[in-house]
């Protein structure tokens, strides 16, 4: 019995995986006005081990929070509720000070500062505190930059991949030569 040629199926799966990555990056670029660490970190790997196809996606850890959103302590965005986010600030499960640290790093990296009523720049720490407090209370709105293309393309993969698999199996007649019967 001949083995199924997995290279054609792997190539097909790689095409779909690349589409998911590209559309995810396009969604982020629209929202974030360009690249960034999250944008640059999105990638995929397709592998075949013992006839099993393994498709993995990788991105910065905080990408899942941007995609699904995070519920706030006092309120939440409708999009975050609609995305059925399981993430919520104030549960005590995350890294203590992680939000403050991340926002502080972002504020300093972008050289972003609020101004007071007299037009003077606030310190990076003050700006970071204001942003962090707002995010903590309101939450983080779901962006679904990854979920949208993944769900849309996953349906296509199921249909096309199964059809191609059946054609590949039939073309190699791994079930024996039915014509001799």
Structure description:
This protein is mainly alpha-helical. Helix 1 packs antiparallel against helix 7 and helix 5 crosses helix 6. The longest helix has 27 residues. It is elongated. 16% of the residues are buried. The strands form two sheets. The protein has a two-stranded antiparallel sheet with strand order 1-2. The protein has two domains: 107 residues, no CATH class; 73 residues, no CATH class. It is built from seven helices and four strands. The protein starts with 5 loop residues before the first helix and ends in a 9-residue tail after the last helix. Helices cover 54% and strands 10% of the residues.
**N-to-C series of helices and strands:** HHEEHEHHHEH
Calculate the mean pLDDT score and round it.
82
Number of strands: 4
Largest sheet: 2 strands, antiparallel
Q: Which strands sit side by side, in order, in the main sheet?
A: 1-2
| Total number of distinct structural domains | 2
Helix content: 40-55%
Quaternary structure? single chain
SSE-based structural type: mainly alpha
